[in-house]
Design brief:
By secondary structure, the chain is α+β, with helices and mostly antiparallel strands. The protein contains twelve helices and 15 strands. It has one domain: Alpha-Beta Plaits, CATH 3.30.70. It has helices spanning 21-30, 77-81, 89-92, 149-153, 180-184, 206-210, 216-219, 237-244, 286-290, 301-323, 329-335, 339-342, and strands spanning 7-12, 44-48, 86-87, 107-108, 136-140, 159-161, 168-170, 190-193, 198-201, 226-230, 249-251, 261-264, 270-272, 278-282, 293-294. The strands form six sheets. A five-stranded mixed beta sheet has the order 10-1-12-11-15, sandwiched between helices. Strand 6 and strand 7 form a beta hairpin.
Length: 345
C-alpha cells in the first residue's frame, strides 16, 4: 500500500557528543522491561571507523543482493551483540557513606575472550596515529526505508509500512520469528527476541509522532542534532536540509533501500605535520566518509567524494557569511534554537 507521507530524520554529526543519552532514552522507553530485549538497542551510537552494532553488520549484507536467502548469516546474539552486563556502581558510588572501594566502573560479569563485545565496545578508538588520530560518532536507528527489504522478506506480511507516515512496524501478532526480516535488513536494525520468538525494532516513537512531538531519542539529545519532519513538507527544516541546501546524505545508499534517516557528514579539524604545524588536508579522510554516505545507489566513489566536498564548501561559505555579520538560513537551521525548529510533525 503506498504511503501518504514519509517521515524523515536528519542528524547533524557535527554536533553529536557521543554521550549516549539518545541510546539510554530509547532503552529506558522501549527495551528494558521484557525478557529477550537486553541486546536490543533500537538507537545506538557507534564510533566510526569501527565495527558497528551488531559487530561487522556492514558485512552481513541483505537477501536482496544474494540469490540464496539461507546462505546469509544471522547475527549471533552473543558474538554480534555481546552478552549483557551490569556495572558495579555499588563499589564506585558512595551510596551509604564512607569511601568507595573502587575508583573505576567495572562490568559484572566482566566480558572476556575473543567474542567479548557491546554496543559501544570500540568507542573512541577510530584510526590514525597521534597527532592525526580521528573518529566521529554515528547514531543509528531503523531507517524506515522507502523500499524496505524487511517488508519484502517476511513471508507472513508481519512487517509493513504505515500508510499515514511510512513508519516501518512489525505486527507482533502475525510474527512467528522466522527472522527473514533480520536477514533482509542490511543495516541489521531488526532484532530477534529469543524469549518471545518474535522480531522487534525501532517504531520511530510513533505514539509521540501522533502527538506532534519528536522521537524520544531526538527530544532527549543534549546536542540537539536531530531534525524530524515529512519528506513532502517543503516548509520543514528536514526538507530544506535534504532538498534545498542539499547538505544531508544517506547512510550506505548502495544498499538500495532509500533510507529516510539522513546525515550531515562531520567537518574535520586539520591534520598536523610532525613539527606541529596545521596542514590543509582534513584529519578525517573524505574517502572514509564517502564509504558511508551518499545520495543514491548509483553514485560512484568519486561522485560521493565530490558531494561531501560540496557540502563542506556550502557549510563553510555560510559560516563565513555569518562571521562577516551577515545572515544564513542554513546556519539558523543548524543552530536549532527552539524545539519547534527541530520537530515539525
Amino acid at each position: 500500500m503506498p504511503v501518504i507521507k514519509q517521515i524523515r530524520m536528519v542528524a547533524d554529526l557535527n554536533k553529536c557528543l557521543g554521550c549516549h543519552t539518545c541510546t539510554m532514552a530509547c532503552k529506558t522507553m522501549w527495551t528494558d522491561r521484557n525478557k529477550g530485549q537486553m541486546h536490543m538497542y533500537w538507537n545506538n551510537v557507534e564510533t566510526h571507523p569501527g565495527k558497528g552494532y551488531p559487530k561487522n553488520y556492514e558485512t552481513h549484507g541483505g537477501w536482496f543482493n544474494v540469490s540464496d536467502r539461507a546462505a546469509i548469516p544471522l547475527p549471533d546474539i552473543k558474538k554480534g551483540y555481546g552478552a549483557p552486563w551490569e556495572y558495579d556502581y555499588d563499589k564506585v558510588l558512595k551510596t551509604e557513606g564512607g569511601d568507595a572501594s573502587s575508583s573505576v566502573l567495572v562490568p559484572s560479569p566482566e566480558p572476556s575472550g575473543a567474542d567479548a563485545y557491546a554496543s559501544n565496545w570500540d568507542e573512541d578508538v577510530g584510526e590514525g596515529e597521534f597527532p592525526n588520530s580521528y573518529y566521529f560518532y554515528l547514531p543509528r536507528i531503523c531507517n524506515h526505508c522507502t523500499d524496505p527489504p524487511c517488508v519484502d522478506a517476511c513471508p507472513r506480511q508481519a512487517v509493513y509500512k504505515r500508510e499515514e507516515d511510512g513508519i516501518v512496524l512489525v505486527d507482533q501478532n502475525r510474527c512467528r520469528g522466522y527472522r527473514y526480516c533480520v536477514k533482509g535488513c542490511p543495516y541489521k536494525k531488526i532484532y530477534y527476541n529469543p524469549e518471545q520468538k518474535i522480531a522487534q525494532k525501532c517504531i520511530f516513537c510513533y505514539p509521540r509522532i501522533e502527538q506532534h512531538l519528536g522521537n524520544f531519542c531526538a527530544s532527549q539529545c543534549v546536542g540537539r542534532i536531530h531534525f524530524v519532519g515529512y519528506a513532502e513538507d517543503t516548509g520543514s527544516n528536514v526538507y530544506k536540509l535534504v532538498n534545498k541546501w542539499k547538505v544531508a546524505l544517506r547512510l550506505h545508499p548502495e544498499f538500495k533501500t532509500e533510507p529516510n534517516v539522513f546525515y550531515i557528514p562531520p567537518l574535520s579539524p586539520p591534520s598536523y605535520s610532525p613539527a606541529g604545524e596545521a596542514m590543509e588536508n582534513r584529519r578525517i579522510p573524505v574517502e572514509v566518509l564517502a564509504e558511508l554516505f551518499g545520495d543514491t545507489a548509483d553514485q560512484t566513489p568519486d561522485q560521493r567524494i565530490a558531494r561531501i566536498e560540496e557540502i563542506f564548501d556550502i557549510i563553510q561559505r555560510e559560516r563565513d557569511k555569518v562571521a562577516a555579520g551577515g545572515s544564513s538560513e542554513l546556519i539558523d537551521i543548524l543552530i536549532a534554537r527552539r524545539e519547534t525548529d527541530r520537530f515539525q510533525v
